[in-house]
Amino acid sequence: MLNKSAPTTEAAPVIELRGLTVRRGRRDILRDLDLSIPAAEVVGLLGPSGCGKSTLMRSIVGVQKITAGTITVLGLGAGTPSLRHRVGYVTQSASVYDDLTVEQNIAYFSRIIGAPPGDIERVITTTDLVPYARQLVGSLSGGQRSRVSLAAALLGSPDLLVLDEPTVGLDPVLRADLWSMFRNLAADGTGLLISSHVMDEATRCDRLLLMRDGSILADLTPAELLESTGTTSADEAFLTLIEHAAGADASSLGEAGRPTHARRRIGTP
Ligand SMILES: Nc1ncnc2c1ncn2[C@@H]1O[C@H](COP(=O)(O)OP(=O)(O)OP(=O)(O)O)[C@@H](O)[C@H]1O
Ligand SMILES: [Mg+2]
User: Fold this and answer.
1) Mind giving me the DSSP string for 151-166?
2) How far apart are CA 119 and CA 89, in angstroms?
3) 28, 33, 53: which to mutate for ligand 1, most atoms within 8 A of CB?
4) Which of 25, 102, 139, 188 is the most exposed place for a label (fewest CB within 10 A)?
5) Is 15 helix (H, G, I), strand (E, B) or coil?
6) Is 137 in contact with 98 (CB distance < 8 Å)?
7) Do residues 43 and 186 make contact, with C-beta atoms less than 8 angstroms apart?
8) CA of residue 117 to ligand 1 center, whole Å
């Protein structure tokens, strides 16, 4: 198991992709992706609707049929049974039971993964759901429901959390609360891969993967994104990047100040 107190450089890469291709029908949904995330950090996966974010996340958690390539998660092949306890996954639509209470939902998922006693209370507290613990999930607001999914993913203290648009539909206060929770989890050594449409969330990440049309256009820090594109907002930066990519010149962006370990551009020659 990834030792959360060990220096991250000595640990197995959190996620490593080599030549990952996913074809659906006649279309390549993901195209020959290479990626290495060596440290437990908050990694934002950003890109327009339909670019392949959920497909990439499903591949990483081992529930997507892949066409070619390899995916290594915490040193093991994606989908390896022992990873079930080490990787928490929240799908894009909340996958919890409306006719059970918050506590019953969490207790159910806890039994499935064999989480330690006390974990139910811990995850309900972490996600600020204590006041709703005895309430049916069907009677909760959208934001509260997504926090129940998140609570379930936190059971067993996974080393990696894969969260597909966890903040969609939340008001700015709740979004800020969730992001501070993500930061706390990362500070404790958990790796987080978080997808979002909302570009201003980019600045809350340690590292960004910008996707478009099945490829990763850029792999950099938020500061590098702004610096390399000469822009002041993540929104603007992404548009600039897309324009450059369309001009087949994306590889000239983003080299300044790039740390050497795996801070590299993906999907460009
Ligand atoms: N079952 C399917 N069969 C064929 N193509 C599919 C299927 N599901 C999704 N796709 C296609 O795969 C592509 C990537 O979809 P994916 O859900 O990964 O995108 P996304 O980036 O997560 O989008 P969003 O931001 O809207 O959630 C899309 O073009 C979509 O049309
Ligand atoms: Mg999606």
Assistant:
1) HHHHTT--SEEEESST
2) 17
3) 53
4) 25
5) strand
6) yes
7) no
8) 38
Token pair, residue 205, equals 């990440």
| Segment holding 248, helix H or strand E | none
Beta strands 15-24; 27-37: pairing state: antiparallel
Question: What angle, rounded to 10 degrees, do the helices at 172-187 and 142-154 form?
Answer: 10
- Outline where DSSP puts E strands in the chain: 15-24, 27-37, 42-46, 68-73, 76-77, 87-90, 160-163, 191-196, 207-212, 215-220
- Rounded to 5 degrees, what angle do the CA atoms 56, 184, 199 make? 45
89 DSSP β-pair partners: 162
Say how many Å lie between the CA of residue 113 and the centre of ligand 2: 25
| Tokens matching residue 249 | 């010149």
pTM of the full predicted structure?
0.85
- Higher-pLDDT residue of 92 and 9 is 92
Q: Which two tokens stand for residue 95?
A: 């996958």
Averaged pLDDT for residues 198-224:
91
Ligand 1, pocket residues at CB < 6 Å: 24-25, 29, 47, 49-55, 92, 197
Query: For 67, how many CA atoms within 13 A lie in the half-sphere containing its CB?
Result: 15
Q: Two tokens at 131?
A: 């006041």
